[in-house]
Amino acid sequence: MKLILSYILYIIGDLISRTLMTWGNGYGFKAYNKIMLWSVDLDQEGKIWKYVKHKNKRKKKNVKKNSRLH
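The structure assignment produced for this chain is given below.
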């Protein structure tokens, strides 16, 4: 039931973003924001929204040592 409601809220938010926010100079952003956040909260299994894990590791730069500089 929560998954269906989450999908319905997602569709409503998508319609708001395609209509009110594009034609009305951003009018409707508050409603869009709340509806999408409700949709994310209801999707606990991650079937509609993809959950991305952040990487904390930085890539090391490969710096070649030049014998002329040392």
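Interim note for the steering committee: Residues 2-18 form the longest helix (17 residues). The two ends are 68 Å apart (CA to CA).
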